[in-house]
């Protein structure tokens, strides 16, 4: 693991606070001393490979699963000693939509609103608001068993938003959605946070974490291996990058050699797409040296880009550092 990628715990009031969580399923150690700290009114992105422990952590924090060790509190209440107090304060959208397939979409929303003790008129009003927010008008009168996967997901998310909970756990909330509906979910999450909600988001879409998260925790093998704001994690990876799209496939090795010579860094080479990438610690000065060297050696390129590292690159690097 690179230095600086596992920073200290954030300051301020913590709405989600977990230390040393462990959980074993038979021979599988799902959580191995997992720590998480989420300040009030922020979005924390929880990233990790399949099987890293993300969903197990969410299930423990939402009181659906008991940890074997460690402790955790949500909204100031211990998940083991005060589970009902935690449940009153959280909304949860799990990986699999938990809707009634017999009732219509509207009836599902009204039923869950009544579970939250809204009166009949208030339940109908809240259902209508969520149907509009999540673009469910055309499907509201139909049963969810006939919905597409993405539409069922949107209904499930709408249910989790009914009471605008102060703490919201979203476990891969936009899986199966098209880009337009993903944006609608993002808009809903931002609206809740603007009103003071705290959100824990697990996702496989790193652009989603980049768009929504104030902080990110990367989990692998049941342990937190990196944490920080998106820009902090990108900076810790080594500053900016220069990507060069080479015109001729046969020039890729020579361009890679030249970039290594100019920057002193080992370039990343993608021969199939003719891209060569290299670190650029001093940004524009490095870009100028690379462009001048390419011109002097008569190497034609189709594009040259100075950019920040992506969360994808951070994710690949930090998980690679801790894997055998």
Describe it:
InterPro entries: AAA+_ATPase, ABC_transporter-like_ATP-bd, ABC_transporter-like_CS, ABC_transporter_ATP-binding, ACT_dom, DrrA, DrrA1/2-like_C, P-loop_NTPase. The protein is an alpha/beta fold and 324 residues long. The protein folds into 2 domains: 14-234, 3-Layer(aba) Sandwich (Rossmann fold), CATH 3.40.50; 240-307, Alpha-Beta Plaits, CATH 3.30.70. It contains 11 helices and 14 strands. The protein has a 6-stranded mixed sheet with strand order 6-7-8-3-9-10, sandwiched between helices. Strands 2-1-4-5 form a 4-stranded antiparallel sheet, covered by helices on one side. β9 and β10 form a beta hairpin. α3 (105-115) crosses α4 and α9 packs across α10. The radius of gyration is 23 Å and the shape is globular. The mean pLDDT is 87.
Q: SSE layout and pairings?
A:
Blueprint: E1 14-25, E2 28-39, E3 43-47, H1 54-61, E4 69-74, E5 77-78, H2 83-89, E6 90-93, H3 105-115, H4 120-133, H5 149-160, E7 167-171, H6 179-194, E8 198-202, H7 206-212, E9 215-220, E10 223-228, H8 230-236, E11 240-246, H9 252-263, E12 268-270, E13 275-280, H10 284-296, E14 301-307, H11 311-322
Parallel strand pairs: 3-8, 3-9, 6-7, 7-8
Antiparallel strand pairs: 1-2, 1-4, 4-5, 9-10, 11-13, 11-14, 12-13
Helix pairs in contact: 3-4, 9-10
Our estimate of the beta-strand percent is 25-35%
Number of domains: 2
Secondary structure: helix percent: 25-40%
What do we call the CATH homologous superfamily of the largest domain?
A: P-loop containing nucleotide triphosphate hydrolases
Largest sheet: 6 strands, mixed
Spans of at least 5 consecutive residues with low confidence: none
Side by side, the strands of the main sheet go 6-7-8-3-9-10
- Secondary-structure element order, as H and E? EEEHEEHEHHHEHEHEEHEHEEHEH
What's the average pLDDT?
87
